[in-house]
Each structure stands twice: as C-alpha cells, then as structure tokens.
Write a structure and sequence with these properties.
The chain is an alpha+beta fold and about 1000 residues long. The strands form seven sheets. The protein has a six-stranded antiparallel beta sheet, sandwiched between helices. The protein has a six-stranded antiparallel beta sheet with strand order 9-8-7-12-11-10, with helices on both faces. A five-stranded antiparallel beta sheet has the order 14-13-17-16-15. Helix 6 runs parallel beside helix 12. The longest helix has about 55 residues. The radius of gyration is 53 Å and the shape is flat.
Length: about 1000
C-alpha cells in the first residue's frame, strides 16, 4: 500500500510539474528558439536530471543540439561540449529509430558495453563525462513527420533510473512542444514573407528614385559618377567607387566617383583612385571590366588583402580593413562603360547574395545613365569639331591663295595618272609653258620629267597611295626651251573623293653651286656605298677614328665584338673600347700616331686588350692604316679577337707542363710505330733518354711474343676508339714490367688520325696486391663453405635428439599426466615448449644459412604484390586481429624474387608481431626519396624500441623484448639484413618506445652495362 501511495503521490507531483511546464510553452509559442529552451529546462526539471533537444536538419539525416539544461552548471557545460557537433543518424541507432518510426527509445540502465558499436563519439563522451546511466528519447512530431528528439537522462551513478511514468510525461511534453514549434515556425514564415514583400516594395521605390536621379545628371559625366557612387554607397555601403572606362576601352580612368560615410576615408579613397590609370584586364577591377562578369567575395582577410595589393593601396586598405567585397561591371548596350567596386568593413555582416542582386539592379540603371552621358558628350564634341573644321578650312583656303599668289613656290594640282587640274603662275614661269598648253593636255606633264628621274616619281606615287604623303624629293624638269630645271618637290593627297594630288615645287636653278654639290653628292654617295659594302664584308671588326679620337664609322663585326650598337659607338671617343687602366696612356699613343701615321700590320708583337659593353675584357690584335679624306685625316683600325687563340696557347702550355710533370710515361708515335715524343716519366719508367729513343720503333719496348698487340691497337684506332689494357713491357736494362696502357688517337685540324698518344703506368705493385687478394678470397670462400657445411650439419644432427626429447616429454604428459603433480606437469610442459623453441631456432639458422649460400639472381620485382601476399597470409593465420594495412601501389626493386619474398615476410611479420598489443594497429608499406635514392619502408605503430639499442636489432639472437612479451627467435631481422647486404644495399631502423618503428631498405639498381 505504501508503494502504491508513493506512486500516486509521484504521479500527482509530475502532473503538477507538467501543468507548470506547459505554461512557458504557451507563453513562448510564437518564438521557436524560446520554445526549445523552455522544453529542455522543463524536461530536465521533470526528470530531475539532464534534458536536451535535438532538431532534425534539412537533410533529414543529421541531428543538431538546439537546447540543453541541467541544474548543475558543470554537468551542463560537459553536456554542451559533448553535444556541440552534429549527430549523424547513421552513427546513432537509437536516435535513428526514434526519428524514423516515432517510437520512443528507453534505456533504464545504460552502460558503455551495452552501447551499439556504431554509436557516435559525441555520445560516448557524454556517457563517460557525466556518468549518464539512464536515458529516454521521444520523437517530436508535427504534421505527420519528425522534427527532432526530446531526450531526458539521469546522471551520476547514485541517481535513480528513469521509469515508464517519466516516458509517458516526456511523450506528452514533446507532442505539445512540437505543436508549439510548428505554430511558431508558421508564424515566423508569415513574418518573413511580410517583411520580404515590404523589402521588395522599398527596393522598387529605391530603383525608381535612383533611375530618375541618374537620368537628371547625364549632362555632366563627372557629376553623374559622383551621384552614382553616393547612391550605391548609401544603399549598399560601406565604400563604393565608380571608375569609367576610357573611350578606347583600354583603361579605367583615374577620374571617377566615390563615397564613404567617413569623410577622411572618402578623401583617402579619392586620392588612391587618382594614383594612376589601371589597364583593363589588370587587377581585380580590370579583370571585371575585361570579362564583364560581376564578382562577389563574401569573406576577406583584411591583412592578406592589403599585403597582396600595390604599395599606394596598401596603407589605405589597412585603414579601411575590408572584410567583404563586390565588383560589378557597368554594361550599357553590350559594352562595359565602367566598374562599381564595393568594400564593406563589417565581419559579422558580409555582403549577401541579396545585396549582390540589389547592387546589380541599381548598377544597370547607372550603366545606362553613363552610356547616355557619354553619347551626349560625344555629340557635343562632334558638333564642336565640325565647327572648328569649318573655320580651319576657310583659314586654309585664305592662306593657300596668298601662298599661290606669292610667286615663291610653284603649285600643281593633278591626278595620280599625270593629268593637271590646276597650276599657278609661278609653276608656269618655271617650265616656260602657258596655262592652256598644260591644262588642255597638249603638253603631257609626265613628259616634262627626264627618263632617269621617272623612278623617283614612281616611288613618290607609291608612297602617296600608301600614306597620303609623298617624300620631299629632288628631280629635274625639261623646260620648253630644252634646258634642265632642278627642283625640290613635296606632294600630298588632297582630302576628298577625287584622288587629286597637290605638289609644291621650289626652283633650284639659280643655285648653281647647289647643283654642283648635288652632282658631287651623287658620286660621293656611290663611293660611300661601295666603301660601306667593303667595310661590312670585312671579316674583322673595323673602326674608323677621326683626329680628335672620336669614332666615325664601325661595321657589324665591331658591334658584335664589343656589344655596342652602331648608334652607341659613333661620335664617342675610341677610349671607350680600351680597358679603364689603359685609357690615359692610349690617348698619348693616339696623338703620337696621328703625328706620324704609318701602316701597322696585324700581329706586330703587341699584347692588346679591348673592353666590351658589359665590362668584360678580350685579347685583340690591331692593324692601323691612315686615310686621307676631304674632311681630314682618319685612321682605319682592323681589330681581331684573339681571346680563343690565347686560351688555346695557354691550354697547350699547361698541357705540356702536365705532360712533363706526370709520373706516368706519355709517349707519342706515328701510325707506323715510330716514337715522336718522350716525357720524363717515360725516361724514368723505361730507362731510355729522349735522345736515345725518339725516332726508333715502339717495338724496342715490346717483349718477344707480344708484337701482335701493335696491329690490334691500329685496328681499334681506325674507328677512333680509345684502348685500355694491361700488358708487359721491357725496360732498357732488359727487365719486364707489368704496365697499364691507354692508347688514344691524335687528330689533325680536319679530324684525320695522324698519330697515336700512349700513356703507360707501372702496375707491378698493384699486380702483386691483386694476386694476394685473390689468394685471400679463395681461402675465405673455402673457410666459409666449410663453416656453412658445419652449421648445416650441426643443425641437422641436433634435430634427432631434440625430436626424441620432445616426443618422450609429450608421451609423459599424455600417458602419465595423472601420476605427476601440478609442478611436475609444468616442468614437462616447459621441456616441450623449449624443445619447440629449439626447433624454431634450428629452422631459423638453416634459413639464414640458405640466404648466405643462395645465388642472387636479380630482376625487377613487384614489392607491392609481395607485401599484399605476406599480409594476406598473416591475416589468415591470425583472423581474430584487426590491423589497418596500407600498401603503396607501384613499389618495385631489383631483387632476387625468392630472397625478396623472405625479406618482405620478415619485415612485415615483425611489424605484425609488435603491434599485437595496440588497440588500433596500423602498418604502412611504401617508399620515399632518401639521399637521392628511392628507399622502401615498413612502418608500424607498435611497441617500438629505444634508439640507444638500435645496433642490436639486426644481430642474430639479439632481442630487445622478452620471449614471454613477444615470442620469436631473434633471427628474422638478421636474415633481412643478410639479404639486403647480399644485394649491395643498406637497411636501418628508427623508432621510439611505445611509439612504433620504421624499417628502411635501399637497394641499388642493377648495372646494365660494362664499366
């Protein structure tokens, strides 16, 4: 009865609490977030524990924490941290079932072991941190679908478990809250729709006002830009700048409009805009103008944005600190007429897509206004230009009439085919004909030009047709009385459709001296042309210098030799081509030469240097020749670059010194075998002096029976091969020497083999060493074979007694187990176990012996495939383990296939063994670059090792862990090292205690050719 009475009182209390809980839900039913907060609080108070509300995201697969409450602030903070990340339904089966079916989830006694394996980490953290041990979850459903979950939990191991009464009350509370949230959501949507309608109406009003204001400002483009910037800045903010494109579409003009509510920033923005013009296509604004595509950048790092800008902008951007940006091209009738740039300095209120669309709408009206303003300005400019052209035409006609009547110039207006339309009196007086004879074409105007000048007229006509302007040219006319009239003519096409040409003619006949000069100039021009052609054809650099030392003329070779252009040399002092430390002295030499000029031939025994434009020096030879001209005495200098020749001579001198200093015998001989050169090293080696041997046959050095070597040498040299071989040669005193001989062909300037160079080195000591090493090697190999045979025999002979010991011990255990007490059974089992260990050691020794004896046959091996096979075998033998294994694709190495499998098995097996005690074991097999070579590696996150003992890893029977902790023989890594060494490679390891280990292997590639 007492229990029933207690339940009745508990139920009455909960009905009271529930009634009290519904009041705040009713009071906040028009605000969904407040409903959720009230629901979590009341649920927690009802359950005397933790209450939290999870709302379903739009994707229908994610729950996010909307509210949580617990009376203890510490517990509440733990709960909020654990539930801060979204919960995927796929990782929380209980939540998923509640959301999808609407059925409640109730766990009266919650334990970590009882949680589903797929439970999300956030829930695991919550259970552990607040000792959550009783949990119920009910769906919040409205209009036939779940919108979230109400969860109630008891925390603290001493608190009572939730009951079915708690579940019923929570269901009721959740259903009422879901209805309140649904109503609040509908109300909020209605409010948003009303606000959106008001916002759109306001936007339409603003667009209309802006369009009218823009249209009223089209008569002044600068004023219009200021109005547009102010309008856009006030409506969108914070900073708005408008830059128009230039008429040619190439630049963004520095003039423009800008706006910022802060006057100082507004002034700074205008200063930055006027810094320089920006080319269309450059920078962010330029690219927007080039593409016509608007840009919205919602988030900007102010410091990075400023650092990436040019220096004049950087200080301004640091002051402005923009956090969001928009760039909108202003497009009118398909043409970009400007760019509107927006920068906002409000991190919590970046430009939105709605701001972007609104700004584009206003920008379209602004672009149309700018286009109209440009058209208006262009119309005014065209009207002003027309009026100016009309005035200019009247003034030109007046000036032309006065010029025509002045009698100074002859004027002829005609067509390109030679017909004269108009001619003035001065021109008629020059040629001696009257106007009627010329205009009626009774006298053909073209016939007044002598034949030798008609090519000049043809060139002028061609240039007139191409450019509208004829070159100023000299020619002659034949007068009516037969005399020649020298003239100077300039011509131009007359603007219009008639294709007429006007020519101005200056009479040169009264300047007989000028006429003579022209004749002389013709002759001199021809002579100069021939001289310049010869000068350019010269193989040497040619420099002609005046008496004052200035350069008068140079050829192409001089430009190429000294690195200066012709324009940089002509008129400059010749000393610019002389090294700085020689220039003062050169001025004196130059003066002495001009006082007594004479021809000086090339290579007069002088060591001279020149200086190039880049400051580098070159060795040169110079020949000098005086030239007597009408302008005075000149000197022609032919300059030849001897740098390569000097280098070659120095090289030959160094080579000769090397030959003389060499301890080897260096001998030159003809193709017939006659000795032509003999260095001191040859004299020391063979005992002959140069006087005794030069001119004799090389056979004097060849012992009897080796004469055929000479014919073999000639056969190889015939194809230009260098021959190296070891042989025997004879000294003057009759002793034979072991020598190494290198034979090389000697070629002439055109590549023909004209002789033989021979280098001979005494290798007597080396030969003795090689024989001693060969004997030692044979002895070592014999000892090794005997040692291997002994090891194999010992290992084999140990097996029989070992098998007997193991067998009898096992029989005692199986047959007489009852006659032994527990200690005796343990001793017998220890005998069996150690017998097995001894057998494993013998097998390991035999495997190590086989690795030592096996012949290595290398080929390209797929290491990735071998590693995967090794891992598969380990997984099959140990199926209860879960190990993450990553094998890199495409691993290859030059290895013996059999030894490669043993190497990989040992390394991967080692990693498998030492990760046994790790909860999330991981093994990685891959490759990396190391010291210029590719290195394979096997990495694990297992027990690891102390690097102080790394030297013991690869020694047989040396183990860093006990056999009870990690069983093994201590032979595996020794076998791996033996395999790597047999391939000429290197193996090493890196690790740390309880932090895993990595084993590295580098195998050199096979040699593919002879040395």
């Amino acid at each position: 009865m007492d229990s029933a009475w207690d339940q009745q009182r508990s139920l009455e209390e909960r009905v009271r609490v529930l009634s009290a809980a519904m009041r705040p839900l009713d009071e906040t039913s028009d605000d969904a977030p407040q409903v959720v907060e009230a629901l979590a609080r009341r649920a927690a108070e009802l359950a005397q524990g933790l209450g939290f509300v999870l709302l379903l995201a739009d994707d229908g697969q994610t729950l996010t924490t909307a509210a949580a409450f617990h009376a203890d602030a510490g517990v509440l903070e733990h709960a909020r941290q654990a539930l801060s990340s979204a919960t995927r339904l796929s990782n929380h089966p209980m939540s998923r079932r509640v959301v999808e079916t609407g059925e409640p989830g109730f766990v009266p006694k919650l334990t970590l072991a009882g949680l589903h394996p797929d439970t999300a980490p956030a829930w695991l953290d919550l259970v552990q941190q607040v000792e959550l041990h009783s949990l119920l979850m009910v769906a919040m459903r409205t209009r036939g679908r779940s919108i979230g979950v109400l969860a109630v939990a008891r925390v603290g191991r001493d608190s009572a478990a939730l009951t079915s009464l708690d579940l019923e009350v929570a269901q009721y509370l959740a259903s009422q809250a879901a209805l309140a949230i649904g109503n609040a959501t509908l109300l909020e949507e209605a409010r948003r729709e009303t606000a959106e309608r008001r916002r759109l109406a306001e936007r339409f009003r603003i667009l209309s006002d802006s369009a009218h204001e823009f249209a009223a400002s089209t008569d002044d483009l600068q004023h219009l830009l200021d109005v547009v910037a102010r309008r856009l800045g006030e409506l969108v903010g914070d900073l708005c700048s408008i830059r128009a494109t230039t008429e040619d579409g190439v630049w963004l003009d520095t003039r423009g409009g800008s706006y910022h509510r802060d006057p100082d920033l507004h002034a700074a923005a205008r200063d930055v805009m006027h810094w320089r013009r920006q080319r269309v296509g450059e920078g962010v604004s330029g690219r927007a103008a080039a593409t016509g595509l608007p840009v919205l950048i919602k988030t900007i790092d102010p410091a990075e944005f400023a650092a990436s800008s040019e220096a004049p902008y950087r200080e301004f951007l640091l002051r402005l600190a923009p956090t969001s940006a928009m760039l909108i091209p202003l497009v009118c009738r398909g043409e970009v007429v400007g760019v509107a740039s927006f920068l906002r300095s409000a991190p919590k209120r970046p430009y939105s897509d709605d701001d972007f669309q609104f700004a584009r709408s206003i920008a379209d009206h602004a672009a149309l206004a700018i286009g109209n303003a440009r058209a208006y300005a262009a119309e005014h400019r065209a009207r002003d230009a027309a009026e100016h052209a009309t005035r200019a035409m009247h003034e030109a006609r007046s000036r032309f009439a006065r010029l025509s009547e002045s009698g100074i110039l002859g004027i002829v207006v005609g067509t390109l085919d030679g017909r004269v339309v108009e001619v003035n009196d001065a021109m008629l007086a020059m040629v001696g004909y009257d106007r009627d004879e010329i205009l009626s074409a009774r006298v053909a105007w073209k016939e007044l030009t002598p034949p030798e000048w008609r090519d000049v007229d043809a060139g002028a006509i061609a240039q007139l047709e191409a450019t509208g302007i004829g070159p100023l040219r000299e020619k002659e006319y034949v007068r009516k009385d037969g005399r020649r009239l020298p003239v100077l003519i300039g011509s131009a096409l007359v603007v219009g459709d008639a294709g007429e040409v006007i020519s101005f003619v200056l009479d040169l006949s009264e300047r007989n001296a000028a006429h003579d000069i022209i004749e002389q100039l013709r002759e001199q021009r021809a002579a100069d042309a021939r001289f310049r052609a010869l000068l350019e054809a010269a193989p040497d650099a040619m420099v002609i210098v005046g008496i004052d030392g200035s350069i008068v003329l140079v050829n192409r070779q001089a430009e190429a030799m000294f690195g200066y252009s012709r324009a940089e040399l002509v008129g400059q002092p010749i000393e610019m081509l002389v090294p700085e430390h020689e220039r003062d002295r050169h001025v004196g030499h130059r003066g002495s030469y001009f006082r007594a000029p004479a021809v000086r031939a090339m290579g007069a025994g002088l060591e001279l240097s020149g200086r190039r434009k880049d400051g580098s020096l070159l060795s040169i030879e110079v020949s000098l020749s005086p030239l007597e001209t009408s302008d005075g005495r000149l000197v022609s200098a032919a300059i030849r670059d001897t740098t390569q020749r000097v280098i070659a001579e120095q090289h030959r001198a160094r080579l000769a010194a090397i030959v003389d200093a060499s301890g080897d015998a260096i001998i030159g001989k003809t193709l017939a075998g006659v000795i032509t050169s003999w260095n001191p090293g040859a004299q020391q080696l063979f005992g002959y002096t140069a006087d005794e041997i030069v001119g004799r046959s090389i056979t004097a050095l060849i012992p009897p029976g080796r004469e055929a070597e000479e014919s073999m040498i000639l056969e190889h040299l015939a194809v230009g091969a260098v021959e190296r071989f070891d042989t025997v040669r004879r000294r003057k005193d009759g002793r034979d020497l072991d020598v190494a001989v290198t034979i090389s062909p000697v070629r002439d300037a055109i590549g023909r083999i004209v002789g033989i160079a021979k280098v001979v080195r005494d290798i007597t000591d080396r030969r003795r060493t090689e024989l001693a090493l060969a004997a030692a090697k044979d002895a070592a190999e014999a000892a090794n074979r005997e040692l291997e045979a002994f090891s194999y025999a010992v290992a084999h002979d140990l097996r029989a007694p070992l098998r007997g010991m193991n067998g009898f011990a096992q029989v005692l255990l199986d047959t007489y187990r009852d006659r032994f007490d527990a200690e005796g059974q343990d001793w017998l089992q220890e005998i069996v176990t150690n017998a097995h260990k001894m057998g494993a050691l013998i097998d390991a020794l035999l495997a190590l012996s086989r690795v030592t004896r096996a012949e290595v046959r290398r080929e390209s091996v797929d290491v990735s495939a071998i590693a995967r096979a090794s891992v598969a075998a380990l997984q099959a033998a140990d199926p209860e383990r879960t190990v993450e294994v990553i094998v890199q694709d495409g691993l290859r190495a030059d290895l013996d296939p059999v030894l490669a499998r043993s190497l990989v098995d040992n390394l991967v097996g080692n990693a498998w063994k030492y990760t046994r005690k790790v909860a999330a074991a991981r093994i990685e097999i891959g490759a990396r670059a190391h010291d210029g070579a590719t290195t394979l590696f096997v990495r694990d996150n297992g027990a690891g090792f102390d690097m102080a003992f790394a030297g013991k890893l690869f020694a047989p029977f040396q183990r860093l862990h006990s056999g009870t902790e990690f069983p093994g023989t201590g032979i595996g890594l020794a076998t791996a090292k033996r395999i790597v060494l047999r391939h000429g490679g290197r193996i090493w390891a890196e690790g740390a205690v309880d932090a895993g280990a990595t084993f590295y292997v580098t195998i050199p590639a096979r040699r593919t050719g002879a040395t």
